[in-house]
Amino acid sequence: MKPDVALILCRFLFDGAALFLWGASAYLSALVPAELARWTDRRLGAPIRVAVVLLAATTAVLIPVRTATIGEGWPDALSPELLQSTLLETSIGQAWIIQATLTALLLIVMFASPARYRLGGRALCAGLLLAGLTISGHAAMNGGWLRTVHRLNDAVHLLAAGAWIGALAPVLVILHSLNDEQRQRDARVALMRFSTAGHVAVALVLLSGVANTFLIVGGFPLDWSLDYQRLLCIKLVLVALMIALALANRYVFVPRLGRGRSLTALAWATRAEIFLSFCIVALVAWFGTLQPT
Questions:
Q1: Considering just the CA atoms, what is the radius of gyration of the chain in Å?
Q2: Chain mean pLDDT for the chain
C-alpha cells in the first residue's frame, strides 16, 4: 500500500470514528431520556469500543504515515529527522499533538473514569477531536483573520455533520424499542427530539458547507478537470440524497408510525442514511488530500 493510500485510509477511519462517537454520545447525553440512553449505550457498546480503538490506532500511526507522504515513501516513515520536522515544524504536527492528547484523555474517560461521567466525557473528547482537525485542514492555507474564520466554519461543519450522522446508529437502536411497551414512551420522545435537532444540524451543515466551498474553491466546484472538485460534486449529490431520506423519515414515515410497515420503512431509510454517510466520509478523506484549485 502506498503512503498516500494509507493516509486516506487513516483519515477515513479516524474521521468516521470521531463523527460516530461525537454524534452518538452527544445525542444520548443531551436528548435521550436517561434510562433509555443508558440502555442504548449498552447496546452500542461493541461499535463504540471499536471506534475508540480505531481512534487510538490511527493516531499512533498517523505521523509516520504523514512523514512517508512528505518524504520519499515508506523508507522515510521512521526517519528521526523527518519525524521531528513533521511533528515540531508543521501544522500537521501541531494538530497531531492535540489529537494524541485528546485520544489519551478519551481512553482514560472510557476505561478509567466513573460510569456516570463516561457518556458526557466521551462526547466532549470526540467533539474536541473533530474541532482539532481544522488546524491542519485547508483552512491552514489562509492567513490572518480569514484563517480563523475558516477554521471556525470548518469546526461548525464537522460538529453539525457529526451530530447528524453520528446519531443515526443510536436512532436505529431506539427505533426498534418502539415495540417495547416499557421503553416506547421514552423512545418517541427521543426520536422527536432528534428530529427537531436534526433540522438545526442539517441547516448548519448546508450553510457551513456552502461557505467552505467558497473559502476553498473560490466559487462553485465546476472545474471537473480537477479531482478535488469532481469528488466534491459527488459528495454534494450524496448529501442531497441523505437530506431527501431525512425529510422522508420526518414527514412521511414518522407521522405514520403504528400504521402498516412505516416502522420498517423508517429503519431501512435510516440504514440507507448510515451507508451514504460512510460514502461521504470516504470521499472527504480522499479529496481532502488533493489540491482544490
A1: 20
A2: 91
Domain-wise residue ranges, the chain = 3-287
**From CA 59, how far away is CA 226, in angstroms rounded?**
29
150 vs 130: CA distance, rounded Å: 15
The grid coordinates listed for 137 are: 485542514
Helix (H) / strand (E) containing 222? none
Please tell me the distance from the alpha carbon of residue 70 to that of residue 236, in angstroms, as a whole number.
30
Q: Alpha-carbon distance 201 to 151, whole Å?
A: 18
The pLDDT assigned to 129 comes to: 96
pLDDT band at 258 (very low <50, low <70, confident <90, very high): low
Helix (H) / strand (E) element for 246: namely helix 227-248
pTM over 0.90: yes
User: C-alpha cell of 196?
Assistant: 427537531
- Residue 90 phi/psi, 5-degree rounding, is -130, 160
Burial of 290 (0-12, 13-18, 19+ CB in 10 A): middle
Q: Tell me the HSE value of 68 on the side-chain side, using a 13 A CA sphere.
A: 18
DSSP state of 137: S
Cell of residue 241, nine digits: 440524497
Of 250, 241, 251, give the one whose Cα is nearest residue 275. 241
Q: How far is CA 281 from CA 169, 205, 265, in A?
A: 15, 14, 24
User: Tens digit of pLDDT for each residue in 148-161?
Assistant: 899 999 999 999 99
Q: How far apart (Å, rounded) are the C-alpha atoms in residues 205 and 239?
A: 10
% of the chain beyond a pLDDT of 70: 98
Confidence (pLDDT) at 47: 97
Residues 288 and 278: their CA atoms lie apart, in Å, by 15
DSSP codes, 82-136: HHHHHHHHSHHHHHHHHHHHHHHHHHHHHHHS-HHHHHHHHHHHHHHHHHHGGGS
User: How wide is the angle at C-alpha 125 spanned by C-alphas 25 and 116, nearest 5°?
Assistant: 55
